[in-house]
Design brief:
Layout lengths: L3 E6 L1 H6 E11 L5 H6 L3 E2 L4 E5 L2 E5 L2 E2 L16 E4 L2 H14 L2 E10 L2 E11 L2 H25 L1
Antiparallel strand pairs: 1-8, 2-7, 2-9, 3-6, 4-5, 5-7, 8-9
Length: 152
């Protein structure tokens, strides 16, 4: 039984991208960022993963400054190092370079007291793919409603 506490989700990612693979990574945080995350003050909707110099980073993810912190609060949009195994980093780097895929955060959560981020290796959807997904979702909803009425 794992103790997970959800902090933030990126719901837009599932709409905009085809998710190919997911990875769990730790986050290297500074100072009062952990306290701010415990209050649920984070936004990963615009975030993306980047690999540079053999290290993985989470960029453009907003962690609000801790309100009771001092002037030493870190920048809310700074690059945060992702804690992954070396083979995972080289695999992601190869996929991004060769196939033109992107690394996107899906969820930010605490697992046994440690801040984790669920990363996804994704490929962008075209507009017609998005329309098809919406049509399929509406059709499933209609089928569910019809079936619910028949059970009674």
């Amino acid at each position: 039984m794992t103790e997970t506490k959800l902090i933030a989700t990126n719901r837009k990612a599932r709409h905009d991208y085809h998710i190919l693979e997911t990875f769990e990574a730790g986050l290297a945080l500074k100072g009062t960022e952990v306290k701010s995350l415990r209050q649920g003050r984070a936004n990963i909707n615009d975030g993306y993963g980047m690999i540079a110099g053999g290290e993985a980073f989470l960029c453009n993810a907003h962690v609000s400054p801790y309100e009771f912190g001092n002037r030493e609060n870190p920048d809310p949009l700074r690059k945060r190092k992702l804690l992954l195994h070396k083979r995972e980093i080289t695999y992601l780097e190869g996929q991004v370079a060769q196939k033109g895929l992107t690394i996107v955060p899906l969820r930010l959560y605490f697992n046994k007291g440690r801040a984790k981020v669920e990363l996804a290796l994704v490929k962008g959807k075209k507009s017609y793919d998005k329309r098809d997904a919406i049509k399929r979702r509406v059709a499933e909803r209609e089928i569910g409603r019809a079936m619910k009425g028949r059970v009674k």
